[in-house]
Amino acid sequence: MRVLKRFGLFGALMLIHGLAAAIAPFQIEDISTQGLQRLEPDTVLSYLPLSVGDQLNEASSQQALRALYNTGLFQNVVFLREGGTLIVRVEERPAIVSFEIDGNDKVGGDELDQALADAGLTPGELFRQSLLDQVKQEMQRQYYANGFYGVSVEATVTELDNNRVSIKIDVEEGKPAKIKSINIVGNQAFDDETLLDAFELSPTQAWRLFQSDDNYSKQKLLGDLEGLSSFYMDRGYLRFDVPSVQVSLSPDKRDIYITINVSEGEPYRVEGVKFSGELILSEDYLRQLVLVREDDTFSRRLATQSAEYMEGSLANVGYAFAKVNPMPELSEDGQDVTVNFNVVPGKRTYVRQITFSGNLKTNDETLRREMRQLEGAVFSRNHVERSRTRIARLAFIQEATVDTIPVPGSDDLVDVAFTVEERPPGSVQFGVGFSGSQGFLVNGSLTHTNFLGTGNRVSLELENNQIADTISVSWTDPYATPDGISRTVAAFYRKSEGVIRYSSGFDSNSIGSSLTYGIPISEYSSFRLGLGVEETSINTFATATADEVLRFVAENGSNFTTYEFRTGFGRDTRNRTIFATRGSLNRINLDLVLPGSDIEFYKASYQLQHYQPLFSGVFAEINANIGYIENYGDTTTVPPYEHFFAGGTGTVRGYRSGSLGPRDTPYNNAFGGKLRTTVQTNIVIPTPLESDNKTTRLSVFYDIGNVFAEPSDWEYDELRSSAGLAFEWFTPFLGLLELSYAFPIETDPSIDREDRFQINFGGGF
């Protein structure tokens, strides 16, 4: 049976010839079938190019046999004659009941499953021995390409009843062959060690316990050869070549020896740069984008990067599919090269339509208003990328990607398709939380940054904890006008006990409201303008209140109505507002309590956030803050409840929240001050989590800062610092969860209150 299957095609050809000679021509009076198990006679007759009344001869019988074999349904077909009846005797191909591969850990997966399905080796399909042999050979080839030369691939076909079979392939992979040596022959300009540093493959080294780069792989070797060529091309060796590569296998198939023969040639010097093709942009402008310089050694990397800059510039003026090919033109009698940048701009491209997908909770218009690329306008890569960044910066968007899709049948139209992944837009909570600054708290809050899909932010908060009872509400419309002017309306009531964080010795009650506008003045910059009104009263206690508070009340009273003018300027180039990875934020604010208020003071602040990529997904995050408050007019000093404080998650981690800086008298509690300077430096490290840098972040940090009673008191030696590890997680239900463990460095044990492990959660975003 196995021999017949293996040589089925040969047997079929011989049978065709034999039958043509064995059956004398006759006129078909009837047709019948024999040997069918699953198929119906009508199925066979539908494929048979013969019918009653036809003449059966050598030519028609060969054609009919070929037609039936071509269906793939039969592994044997015989024509017989009984009187005027043509009998078609067939042997159907068996059906595959099951197909299993066992032991293939290194080769396989979804790609192999799909390949088997495409070949017809899946349950329900008809079995063909030739296909099974091909699969075995291909698997063995892939194992050899990955260095598994001792692999064994055996297939077992088990015949079942009703003309069915089950197939199992058993794989014994063995151990991969190890690279014993990689020798480069013919290199004069660079030694082996320098060249092999860029290789992904490496010979076995006894001192490395968990080495894996000594496992041979044909694909990796090809990649290393391409890298070797790039190494030489980037250093001017334009005639570099690899004439041959020998890969030798030891008799026991465990060791591999690689020999690479190279021909270096000589390095070429850049004699000049020229342009050809349809330039579109001026030659002077294009020359500014060229990184290769005359008299320098030629570098293919710099030439390619120059071409990419030119393509980007052309894409910004509508030539979305422009190609710039850097073509080195070698001198005939020297080592000079002229780099010819050939510009093929194609047709100027326009945007037919802009589409959005993935925005299940966000209105289309909410995303469309962030567009800097417009429909019907000339395509601009910068405008498309800026549009993507603006979408990604929305608080309710976790990630945004964009594709430029050519319109079928047109060479000057494209569609721009944005795909977004939404972030939970807020939280509805009622429960118990914990904060490093406020201890256990009971709160109920509603925070939604994408109310009804409009992008409006609504916030309602009720809070009760050791320090305060608060109710606040705010509404922010980021597009109060079509030009992008935002409007925030807010109101609050706060009853505080111990507003100086610990035993301050006075209570306060505040109620107020505010109206603030954000006015864009450029793509990255905006101006802040607003007004607020607040009424505050404080209560002191003769035997428990600090002397500084009693003095303030004696000189300024205990009930205050203030009218505040708010202004500021901000420039934001971050790629995201939450968990940014590059760009920066600079913000300057000045809030002035207007003359005529019961007390008069102003507050100035500067905030810097900067994100700097370092290497391999690692980047630095710097958060710097300076705050200054001062009284003016008849007010003798700044209200104590307006003081700045330091220590805790947002300032200097590792110290109890609000515990740093000046102390009151006579209780020696933290009292805050007029000046606060803090800097947090985080080195953000990639994690294996799928949501890395989108909803989670791990970092090592160094914090430094403090609070001072007066600006003149600032001294570097008085700054407090700490270092540690931090983890942030944007949870779907609790908002932003922040965990940190810090080791205080510059500290004064007599007055500083350490708090190494700190946790904050419970708020929305």
Can you offer a commentary on this structure?
The radius of gyration is 39 Å and the shape is elongated. The protein contains 13 helices and 35 strands. The two termini are 73 Å apart. It is an alpha+beta fold and 765 residues long. α2 packs antiparallel against α4 (58-70). 18% of the residues lie in helices and 43% in strands. The chain has a 16-stranded antiparallel β-sheet. The protein has a three-stranded mixed β-sheet with strand order 2-5-4. It has a three-stranded mixed β-sheet with strand order 6-8-7, covered by helices on one side.
Structure described in brief:
The protein is an alpha+beta fold. Helix 2 (8-22) packs antiparallel against helix 4.
Rg value:
39 Å
For the biggest sheet, the summary is: 16 strands, antiparallel
Number of beta-strand segments: 35
The neighbouring-strand order within the major sheet is 18-19-20-21-22-23-24-25-26-27-28-30-31-32-33-35
| Helix-and-strand structural type | alpha+beta
Mean pLDDT: 86
Which regions contain 5 or more consecutive residues with pLDDT less than 50? 1-21, 430-437
> How much β-strand is present in the residues?
35-45%
Q: How many alpha or pi helices?
A: 13
Gross geometry:
elongated
Helix content: 10-25%
**Alpha-carbon distance between the termini?**
73 Å
